[in-house]
Amino acid sequence: MSPNGFDRPNDRSSDKVHIALSDRHHTLHTQQTYWSYEDIGLFFFAALFLGVLLHSAVRLHLLSATSLNRPTRALQTVVLLSLLSCLYAILKLRYRRHVWRALGWIRPSLRYAVIAVLGGAALAIAVALFLHQSRWVMPPIRFWDLALFGAILGPALEESFFRGCLLPVLARTVSVPAAVGLSALLFTALHKPPTPAQWVCFTTTGVAYGWMGVRSHSTAAAGLMHSAYNVTLFLCQLAGLC
After folding, report:
1. How far apart are CA 153 and CA 223, in angstroms?
2. Which structural domain range is residue 150 located in?
3. How many CA atoms lie less than 13 Å away from 28 in the CB half-sphere?
4. pLDDT one-digit tens code per residue, 203-218
């Protein structure tokens, strides 16, 4: 309000434009998340069915029993691509609408791309030092496994589901911070970390990925942070930090 007690026209116009843009962004974001808990349940059912198929293959001697405990690179690739395809098929066949963009796979701004890379690297160094102090030694990671699963397929699948699909549905039920925390806890639980220290590490990284996805409005930014974290953790292992 100006000194004479009246709003200046420019200020009022600016406020109206800001409110209109905010409402438009909220509407677009709401419309973009067209799926529901039912679709999330279908994805878990598909994952369960894939597990049954793999165990059946072992019983029929099409796969060795050890291949499920120590899967080959080819088997891991098939499983990850199958799950990613299932998520895509469920949303595409049920709604006949765009999928990847709706899941947030859009290019983040340069600012958030830089924050994602540096944040992922910093988080990995902090976790490596924490694990080193806890005297927990990470299992060795092969370079090609890191490149294929740690930097590409793993983050693509996990961020598509946890941050792209699950988090916005949770946010319609609870607050956004609660949705970030709940999706991070489920992310941790499905990784089955064996120690409390690893539970803390997985949950912390899950919260960071969720925060990045929410702030940047881009699952791609969360995926970039996830990849940077995995690659940096591998480098820390080479340096003997974990």
Report:
1. 10
2. 104-242
3. 10
4. 999 999 999 999 999 9
In terms of Cα–Cα distance, which of 155, 148, 123 is closest to 221? Answer: 155
- Structural contact between residues 157 and 84, judged by C-beta atoms closer than 8 angstroms: yes
The tokens of 11 are what? 């200020």
* 42 within a domain of the structure (yes/no): no
Local structure of 70: helix, strand or coil: coil
Assign 14 to helix, strand or coil. Answer: helix
Domain count, the chain: 1
Closest residue by Cα to residue 82 from 59, 52, 102: 52
Residues 6+ positions from 130 with CB-CB distance below 8 Å: 197, 201
Does residue 38 form part of some domain? no
Can you read off the two tokens belonging to residue 92? 């595409």
- As a whole number of angstroms, the distance between CA 174 and CA 185 comes to 15
Taking only the tens place, the pLDDT of each residue in 126-148 is 999 888 787 777 777 788 888 89
**Number of Cβ within a 10 Å radius of residue 236:** 20
